Every structure is written in C-alpha cells, then in structure tokens.
Amino acid sequence: MIYKGLKGVTCTETTLSMIDGERGKLIYAGYDARDLSMNHSFEEVAYLLWYGTLPNESELQWIEEKFKTHRNLPHYMKNIIENLPKELGILDVLRTSISSVHLNSPEIPTVEDAIRLTAIIPAIIAYRLHSLGTKKFPTIRQDLNHVAYYYYMATGIDPKPELTHALETYMILTMEHGLNASTFSARVTASSESDLASSMTSAIGTMKGPLHGGAPTGVIELLNDASHSNNIKSMIREKMERGEKLMGFGHRVYKTLDPRAEALKEILQQNPKADQWFSLALELEDIAIQTLEELKPGRNLYTNVEYYAAAVMKALNIDSSLFTATFTASRIVGWSAHVMEQRSNNTIFRPNAEYIGPVPTTF
Ligand code: ACO
Hints:
The active site is at 251, 306. Keywords: Transferase. Belongs to the citrate synthase family. One of its GO terms (cellular component) is cytosol. The chain is mostly helical. The protein has two domains: 14-209 and 321-344, Citrate Synthase, domain 1, CATH 1.10.580; 215-315, CATH 1.10.230.10. The protein has helices at residues 33-39, 42-51, 57-69, 75-83, 90-99, 111-131, 146-155, 161-173, 181-191, 196-207, 215-227, 232-241, 259-270, 275-295, 305-315, 323-344, and strands at residues 17-20, 25-28, 31-32. Strands 1-2-3 form a three-stranded antiparallel beta sheet. Strand 1 and strand 2 (25-28) form a beta hairpin. Helix 5 packs antiparallel against helix 10 and helix 12 (232-241) crosses helix 14. The two termini are 24 Å apart. Acetyl coenzyme *A is lined by residues 5, 211-212, 215, 240, 245-252, 296, 299, 301, 304-306.
C-alpha cells in the first residue's frame, strides 16, 4: 500500500498540539489555541510550547528579556544579507541567514537557541529591506515585546497596541499545527541528529512553497482579481476550470471551518482599519465556498487560516512580500518545539519508496 503524501499516516506522538479536523478545534499543550491567542502574549505561548507549561510571572519576565537579548544582527550576517542577489525573495534570505546562526549548543537543541533563532528574524527582515534600499534600518528597540517589535521592524510603523493585537492573535494561532509539511521537514532533519539551525533551514525551505506558507500571497492575488471583476462567481469558476486551486481554501486536516480562520475573522470584525479588504474577503468567501461545493462536491472545502491572514496583514499595511515571512516568524516556535521533542525520543525517519523503474534483464 502506498500512502501518497503520507495522507492519514501517523508516524510520531506529540504533546504539542492536537487538531480535531472534524469539529474544527485546535489545542496547544492542553489549552485551546483560540483562548491562548485572545488572552496571552506571543512569549507566553512560546514558553508553553517549549516548556509544556505557561510561565509564572518571573518566568515570563525571563523569557521576555531573553527575546530582547537576541535581537541584534551579528556583523557577518549583515555581510551575508548585503551580498545576496537582489532577486532573491525574503524567504530565501531568511533561509540563508538562519542557516548561518552560530548556536550555543549545536549538538543538543535548547530553548535558549530556539529563542535566539526566533528573536533574530525581525532584524533579518529589516536589514534585507534596508539593503534593497526599500526602508532605512530602524534602531533596534528594547521597549517592545516580540510581536510589536516584529511589526515595527517589518513596517517601520510605530506599533500602537490596537494595531498589533490582530497581528499577535495571528502569530499565536499559527505558531504550531501538528505535523504540517514544514514541521515534518524540521523533524526529519532533527531525526538525523543534525542541529537546530539546520532543521529550521529545512523547514523554511518547505514553508516557502505556494501550497503551504506561500498561500497568503496567492490570496491577495485572488482578492485583487475579485476587486477587478464584475462577476466574482464566474471568475472563480474559470479559475477552477483551468485547474487552478483557490488559495486560502481547503486543508489537509480540517474538513470544516478552520478555527484559526474563524478567530481572525472575529478580530477583523472588531478592527476599523479592516473595512474595504475585509468586506471583499467576506463576499468572496461566500461565493467561493458555494462554487467549490458545486464543482467539488463532498470535498468539504472551506477557508483556511491563510485566507484571513492575508486580510489581517493587508489591514496592518504589512507588505504582501512579507506575508510568508510573518508566518515563518511565528511557526519557528512550533518547529523548534518539535525538534526538541523529536530529539528527546528519536528514531530516524526513513520510509520506503516502491521502485517502478526498469530492472536489468539479468536481475
Ligand atoms: N481550490 C480548488 N480545489 C481544491 C482546493 C482549492 N483550494 N483544495 C482542494 N481542492 C480539491 C482538489 O483539487 C481535490 O479535488 P479532486 O478530489 O477532484 O482531486 C480535492 O479538493 C482534495 O484536495 P487535495 O489537494 O487532495 O487535498 P490535500 O489535503 O492534498 O491538500 C491543500 C490540502 C494543499 C491545503 C489544498 O487544499 C490546497 O492546495 N489549497 C490551496 C492552497 C492553500 O490555501 N494552502 C494553505 C494551506 S494552510 C497552511 O498551509 C497553513
């Protein structure tokens, strides 16, 4: 029996997250991810995934300080970023820069190194924008928590709390999601007892693909097409008849509404800046789900998290070229937690492939 794409195959145990795809529930280490995203900070939820419990007051203070300690870009990394071809996208830059981080503990993955890799991402992005001449490199600030700091470094905009709340919700909701393609990549690399930076590099490479982390950019294209169309339904039909997938719809695990998409939709409903794109997204969602049901009956295709992620980022003036990078900036927490879990009880991943090519006549 061949399980293409390993569909339906369980190959490890985890205490990090549970997805109930039929009921649309997502649990992080015993807590409802939606509640965590509404009531806790990025650092608190990262602590939960890395240590298995929410932090007390002094632990929270510790992790917030650690995030701040690791914000600076080493000189050699600035050189790398400056010397990369201008044509490379931001995910290529993240992949290369993260692969060059000098870890404290290359043999054993640690929380300290996971923080180091997570905390450096905003400066990598800002330095790349600076080296392309798009934005001046901002002064590294120590007064902001991670998500506000990320927003400030990625946009140069002063991060008012009413702006960053929606982003923090998104970044918590996308921190962890079971054995998705990029997390699986991270775990496969970790299973060979390679180091944490190498696992993160594998994961970023997988994240880049349009069927995974690249989807929000496709969602913006879809919304743009819809905004120029006077018949959204036939536009969607034509796309599907050409065999195109509608970006932001469908999910390997959720066969009902993606709870993360629902939570983001709720946040957008409260955000006055979300008006124009959000109403278009709502209209498009209804028509698309109806058309998907007509053309792909019984496949249960609904919006996934990336659909409303695109609307959140659009409302916050985050450039569409940074959507997948923003997803990476949050998912790196889940990746590193999985690497530590993999290494704590390791078996190398080595599935089989059935050979269907020719055999020598003498065989
Ligand atoms: N648009 C049109 N048809 C779709 C879509 C879509 N977005 N998604 C699935 N389908 C169809 C498929 O064509 C297939 O039809 P068939 O039975 O006639 O062959 C059927 O629904 C099942 O789809 P699969 O591709 O087999 O489902 P799978 O679980 O392998 O893929 C995936 C899930 C990759 C997310 C897919 O739904 C997709 O490509 N969606 C668009 C890209 C996207 O939004 N990705 C972000 C996912 S969320 C994340 O990564 C955080």
